[in-house]
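As described in the Methods, two query proteins were run sequentially through the folding procedure within a single session, without resetting any intermediate state between them. The first query and its resulting C-alpha cells are shown here.
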Amino acid sequence: MSDLTPPAAGERQAFARRLIEALQRAHYPADSPTRLAREFNLRFNGKPITGHAARKWLLGESIPTQDKIRIIAAWLDVPAPWLRFGVTEEDPAAREDARSKYDALLADLESLDHKYQGIVFTLVRKMARMSGLRSTAPGAGREDLEDIGRARE
C-alpha cells in the first residue's frame, strides 16, 4: 500500500476501537467528538481539527495523520504504534520489521554521494524542526541525527 492509498475500512474501524479504548482508559468520554476535538486542539500546535473530523475518527471513517496520532498517543499515554496499527513496541515482529526498514534506509543514505547525504540530512532536520516532531525510528533519536550531521560536515 502506498502512502497515498487511503486505509481500508477494517483498518479505520480498528483504529477507532483503539482510540475509544484509549479515551476510556484515560477517563475521557468516547462518545463526544466535540470534547475530543477540544482536548486535542489544546495540545496540537497545527491547524485545529473540527468536531466533524473527530467524529470521523471515532466512527472509523478516517484516521488522523501521523503527527496527530503522536499527539493523541502522548495525551492519552498510549504507544503511538499501538494506537495507529495495534502493535506495541514490544512486539518482536513489528520491531524487526521497523529495524529492517531503518537499516535499508541507512544503507540507501550511505550509498549516496557525500554531497547528497548532506542535502538529505539538512532536509530531514529542517522538516523535523518545522513539524516539531522527533524521529520515532528504532534507535534513531535526535542525538543520532545530530551525530550523522556532524559526521557529514
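Immediately afterward, the second query was submitted; its sequence and C-alpha cells are:
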Amino acid sequence: MSDILEFADRFFNAVEGGDIDAVAGFYRDDVTVWHNFDNLDQSRDDNLATLAGISGRYDAFAYVDVRHTAVEDGFLRQHVIKATVGKKTVNVPAVLRVYVDGGQIHRIEEYFDRGQLDVVFS
C-alpha cells in the first residue's frame, strides 16, 4: 500500500511542478482522463496539454489539504486546488479516482466544480 501512495505523491508532485515529461511517464499510452464538469474522456495528449497550460493560466497553483487512500487497483486522492490570478484566489475541493495497472495510470476520474476556477478570470 505504501508503494501506491508514494506513486501518487510522485505523480501529483510532477503535475503541480509542471514537469509534463514526468507526468507523461506515469501514463499508459491509452490513458483516459474524465472530468465531471464536461462528462468527456480526455486522451493522453489532450490531458498533457491541459496540464502543461496550468502555468500560463494561473499566477500561482498548488494542491493543499492532500489526502490519499490506496484501493485495490489504484488510489483515491482528495485535495484542494488553490489557484491565483492577480488578486483573486480560489480554493476548489477535488476528488480523483486513479486507476493504476502495471505501474502506470490507465484512467483518472476527476470531480470538481470548474465554475469555481473560472472565478479567478472574471
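The longest strand covers residues 88-101. We note this only descriptively and draw no conclusion about the first query from it.
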